[in-house]
Protein 1
Amino acid sequence: MDEFSKISIEEISNRDMLMIIKALEYTGENTKVSSFIELKNSIVKQLSMLTNTTEDEFISYLEKNC
């Protein structure tokens, strides 16, 4: 279980990452549970920082490369 403490972003495809982000957004909007939106926003923020882009640019990149 110690090996599972961190997941490498390299192991998640662009398509899967976009699906995770969109699923969190959809679920948050349709259940009104803010934790889903907060998690989505946190993931997008962190990934956009890693890629040195804005959050909108990061999402656009995923959408174009899936």
Note: The chain has a mean pLDDT of 91.
Protein 2
Amino acid sequence: MQEWSADFVNDPSDDYNLVVEVLCDDKDVAIIRNNGGEIVIKWYPQAKGLEVPVDWLVSLLSTAKERLKKQSDMIN
């Protein structure tokens, strides 16, 4: 079974804006960021297929949306 985790970090290449790094077995597989008020997820190419636990992903996306939009609101 693959082990999934996520880290909320500041991206130094994007003016230190808050992003979410999505990891599978301790390897970066995606990034979630606020792109002009819209939350987007970018999946990195993988040599093997990934099976993402849906409940975990839904919970992560909900938390990410809340925290990334909150940061955006504080900046504006």
Note: The mean pLDDT is 91.
